[in-house]
Write a structure and sequence with these properties.
Blueprint lengths: L3 H8 L6 E9 L8 E10 L2 E10 L2 E7 L1 H36 L1
Antiparallel strand pairs: 1-2, 2-3, 3-4
Length: about 100
């Protein structure tokens, strides 16, 4: 397991450093207590790093996703988006063809 603070400090301010932060609060349903997630996506000249912090009723957890994992997640995302675009393009082509035949 990668030490959260050490990983964060090792990339902070390095060449090409960029960071984006998001906070997500899950709704507290009766059977699921409210939980807060803090996500930091960091990019520098060497690659990517995602820092996740989760804070809930039972305490907190901090996880570091290294470059290799971030790249795998991006590949999955890109593959899903590519398939969705292909599907929408096929549907649009069918719609255009149907409208052209009816006109």
């Amino acid at each position: 397991m990668i030490d959260f603070d050490r990983a964060r400090e090792s990339v902070w301010g390095t060449p090409g450093f960029q960071v984006r932060r998001s906070t997500v609060v899950s709704s507290g349903l009766t059977f699921l207590p409210t939980q807060t997630f803090v996500i930091e996506t960091i990019r520098n000249n060497e690659g990517w790093l995602i820092l996740l912090q989760s804070v809930g009723q039972e305490g907190g957890q901090r996880v570091v996703l290294p470059n290799k994992v971030v790249k795998a997640l991006y590949r999955h995302y890109d593959s899903i988006i590519t398939e969705a675009r292909k599907h929408r393009a096929k549907q649009a082509a069918i719609t255009r063809k149907t409208k052209a035949m009816g006109a």
